[in-house]
Amino acid sequence: MKNAKRTSFTVTKGDTLWGIAGMPLVYGNPYEWPLIYKANAGKIKDPDMIHPGQDLTIDQGASQTAVDAAIYHAKHRGAWKLGQPTSSDLKYLKGGM
């Protein structure tokens, strides 16, 4: 990770990782949501279910390789079911694409 810069973000009602990642002051690209998921793996059980009041870490110093892997995962994740992470989500957390 280059020059790791971390900030925090408090989830409010209606927020999603997709929406948070797309915010200009976060990443400005919703496809980078897996970066938030990975930085908060201990807090987020299912990336499709975050809850108001959760304090999330935002890693704004990710390497280009990490950003590319996150975007790849977001675009190729496959079918998902609310309430449980997909096998591809778990593989991504372990460093696979």
UniProtKB/TrEMBL annotation:
InterPro entries listed in its UniProt record: Bact_Kbp (IPR052196), LysM (IPR018392), LysM_dom_sf (IPR036779)
Residues annotated as domain LysM: 7-58
Coiled coil: none
Extent of the signal sequence: none
PANTHER family xref list: PHAGE-LIKE ELEMENT PBSX PROTEIN XKDP (PTHR34700:SF4), POTASSIUM BINDING PROTEIN KBP (PTHR34700)
Protein's UniProt name: LysM domain-containing protein
